[in-house]
Every structure is written in structure tokens, then in C-alpha cells.
Amino acid sequence: MCCESVLKHVLLFSAILFISISCEEDSSVPIVGLDQTNPIIEIIEPLKEEITSETFEVLVEASDNIGIEKVELFLDNQLV
């Protein structure tokens, strides 16, 4: 009888402990949603109405609220 009572208390304590641990919020995993803000890209050079030769440099500024990994420039669906 004594062992059954102790076993019941251990099982009850284990169940309560398991439930309380599983209900804790895990703060080590960041909650990430979809990025809702578009990046801002500005072509600095060449100027809007500037006439260029066949080969020219393009200077851009890019910013985003989360960060910029890379900027790619395409001309006629070709990466340049």
C-alpha cells in the first residue's frame, strides 16, 4: 500500500512537471514572419537622362529594414 501511494505521487508530480515544461515559451527560437517591407533601391549613376556608351558602370544604393544580402542587375533578362 505504501509503495502504491508513493508511486501515485511520483507519477502525479511527473505529469505536472511534464505539462509545465511543455507549456513554457521557447525564447531561444526567434519567431520570423514574412518580410512585409520592400527594399529601397536607387540608381545613382548613370543619371536618368544621361547618354552612355556600350560599356558603363552602374552605381546603386540599396537598403532594407532587415538587411541586404546581395544586389543583382539584369539587362534584358540577363544577369550582368
Overall pLDDT metric:
74
Helix content: 25-40%
Low-confidence stretches: none
Q: Based on helices, strands and strand pairing, what is the structural class? A: alpha+beta
- CA-based shape: rod-shaped
Order of helices and strands: HEEEE
Number of E-state strands: 4
Pfam family, one: Big_7
Explain what the structure shows.
With 80 residues, the chain is of the alpha+beta class. The chain has a domain at 40-79. The chain has one helix and four strands. It has one helix spanning 2-22; strands at residues 40-45, 59-63, 74-75, 78-79. A hairpin with a 2-residue loop joins β3 and β4 (78-79). The N and C termini lie far apart (82 Å). It holds the Pfam family Big_7.
In short:
The protein has 80 residues and is an alpha+beta fold. It has one helix at residues 2-22, and strands at 40-45, 59-63, 74-75, 78-79. The radius of gyration is 30 Å and the shape is rod-shaped.
List keywords for this structure.
alpha+beta, 4 strands, two-stranded antiparallel ribbon, 1 helix, rod-shaped, 80 residues, two-stranded antiparallel sheet
Lay out the secondary structure.
Elements: H1 2-22, E1 40-45, E2 59-63, E3 74-75, E4 78-79
Antiparallel strand pairs: 1-2, 3-4
Pfam family, one: Big_7
